[in-house]
Fold this protein.
Amino acid sequence: MGAHTITDGQQANRRYLAAALAVVRRTLERHASSVEKQPCEEQTPDEDRQELETAAVELQGETPLQTICTAFNLTPFERAVLLLCAGVELDSSFADLCVRLQPGRQPAEPTFSLALAALPDAHWSAVSPASPLRYWRLIEVGKGTALTLSPLRIDERILHYLTGLQYPDERLAGVVEPAGESDELVPSQLDCAERIARIWAALKDESAPVFQLCGDSSAAKRDVAAAVCAVFGLELWVLPARNLPASPQELDLFRRLWEREAALAPRALLLDCDQMEAGNSTEERNVNHLIEHLSGPLLISTARRRPPLQRFVPAFDVEKPRVREQRAVWRNTLGSAAGQLGGHIERLIFQFDMNAAAIRSAHADAIGRAAGSVPNGTTPEAIGASLWESCRVQARPRLDDIVQRIESAAAWRDLVLPERQIETLHDMALQVRERATVYGAWGFSAKGERGLGIAALFAGPSGTGKTLAAEVLADELRLDLYRIDLSTVVNKYIGETEKNLRRVFDSAEAGGAILLFDEADALFGKRSEVRDSHDRYANIEVGYLLQRMEAYRGLAILTTNLKDNLDQAFLRRLRFIVQFPFPDAALRTRIWERVFPAETPTEGLDAGKLARLNVAGGDIRNIALHAAFLAARDAGPVTMGHLRRAARSEYAKLERPLTDAEIRGWE
């Protein structure tokens, strides 16, 4: 690593700081000579000021010392106290003077008593907690027998800043962080940023601005905030609301440290409230306190508009790139290849709701995928397929605590259902696949987002193939399938269930993933009569779900064992309802014929006899799997004997008797 290069400006600052320290040092020396009644040969105060003015001539701008004095409104005496504390750290002669002026005091530390006695223009108010030195933590007061005798020490952040080094206060580490690189804004986002900047500029002579950025895309709001800050030469830093200190004392300390940080460097704060915990009164109180009292530029990222406070906080809606904007980003990113991929681009746009950065990342990943495929890795079809897979990964939601992604390898041949149900499932796949044509090219989406979501209900007894059908659709459409764990979604606390549902839909929206709400009657049952506030809110949750399903760009599948338990108004909102019947003997025969993989060795199996077992397809798969393990133990093929033993085990689990009629003739 090469040596650090010192710029001319840094050298000029060091000379100015050295001159300022020299003025304070000579002031102490004159005071020491006066106390000791010794002659002083040092230059006069007028000569000190002239030397400082000479050093200032070389400056190319305001020095850190001047910035501190201006930002925190330090008096000449407070400035001298700050330099006294800095001098002890930077110049060993200051320590000698402290010992000389405070005989018997060890270690050699400055005190307010020394400063009040030795420095000019001294005033008692500089000692108070409300003084800039103490309020802004420019100096720290140690323990002593009296306030004026307590040791003083310059804050480390301030010391580094005086010497020209920019290190954020370590007490802010892990609480706030730089926003990092921002993405280029699309026209609608740029228009939003320009409107905010105009209002900000109009408020320049008033209190520091505060703005709400509302919407579901955290990335888009962060990009807009960064663009606004760039107009005013500010660096954007992010504070997740969950990182706010809990206690009022710690919150006040954080607020002061950040305000000090923003005064020392051109920075603005983005308060990220997107993941705030519903019902957390402490977190809500602290967020409101910060909004009301923080000085300095503040932007708030929130999914929904926050209730009004005493402070003027205008709100702006920030959206992901619109369809036409995504199309423009895709065409700019693909360049000359865009003409050959027109149809592929439209399908990507209507399936994956991605920002510009995600689009470019997907393109870069797809080029690698296509180049690595053989034999036609660079054909439009191969590139289109690679783009689809890359977008699928880029848009994959990160909700492992609420949803479970199911890796699907099921195909249509694995699904044994009556012809009518199979036809309905094919219709579902068709509507998902052709969304770009109907909603886009044929204009249906121009009439509004309501009703464009594809929602389906799979109803039927357990084990009849509802989850398997969802897997088949996911494999057919090359989309991710997520099973929603209702035990983590439904919450007894008011507002929590709605918040969890919003997280699921918002996160899955980008990739249009297939959402599988298993045993949905637990959440979407008949809306109850309103007897208390909890019943009222439960109905609100169902209404919220219906609204989100109608606008969801992907496919939402609800499964239930008890269709009659679902509200008729809810059923009317569903585009498809598929009844999964308990398989009759003919269907069970087909299931048995397909249940074993081609690689599994079998001997003497009779699908017709096996179909006498009056069980659903899920139970059939369990029996076949158990029998395969028994055969593997015997190092031979799967036989009817293995299946008989496996059937007895499965029936015992179901708490049902295995009758002689069901297994007659199996030997």
In short: The chain has five domains: 8-167, 172-317, 323-395, 412-579, 585-663.
